[in-house]
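Table 4 source record.
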Amino acid sequence: MTLSLILACLWAIVANVIGMLPSRTSHWRAAYALIAVGVPILGFVTYENGPWVGLVVLAAGASVLRWPLRYLGRWIKAKLTRS
């Protein structure tokens, strides 16, 4: 297993542990930190293992961070329909 896949697995474990912890702020700060760390890891995985493995890791990350993606989709839709 390559270093990039090990980092991606550690990212997924940390994301799931953070998701299980109680939080008063609805985990948004943690989600922003996970995104900031996850994007370079995704690039590293894609660079080392190819685009297909990168797409699998992207899908796994999107399943963990589904609420920020939903809000991003709603924001983009609102911007496009407003024009």
